[in-house]
Amino acid sequence: MTLHDKLVQAVNNRDIDAYLNLLHEDFTVTFHKSGNSFSKKEWASMVTGMLANEQFIHESSRCVYENNDILIQHNFMSYPDDTKEAVMLVAILKDGKVINLESGATSLD
User: Fold this and answer.
1) In DSSP terms, which residues pair with 62 in a beta bridge?
2) What pTM was estimated for this model as a whole?
3) How many Cβ atoms sit within 10 Å of the Cβ of residue 11?
4) What is the rounded distance in angstroms from the CA atom of residue 75 to the CA atom of residue 67?
């Protein structure tokens, strides 16, 4: 199973432990829109809240490209505030895990 498939499965199953196990210990995420960056610990808190909310819906995901160094995904997401976004995720990989993730989102409303 590819890393892309494992990430999608973890999110769709709302399995926070499986998701976090796919992130490197030195993981950081950066939001393109705000420029804010978060550590694995900070992101774990945020993503736990998202996955716990049934109104957060990971509608679909497509792997644009994946190799041992990089994963590029295109996702469609729906949020509790009734907004929808197309989200491009670019993940830098290390030791088979995501070490750096950057997202770019386009509103679909």
Assistant:
1) 74
2) 0.92
3) 20
4) 18
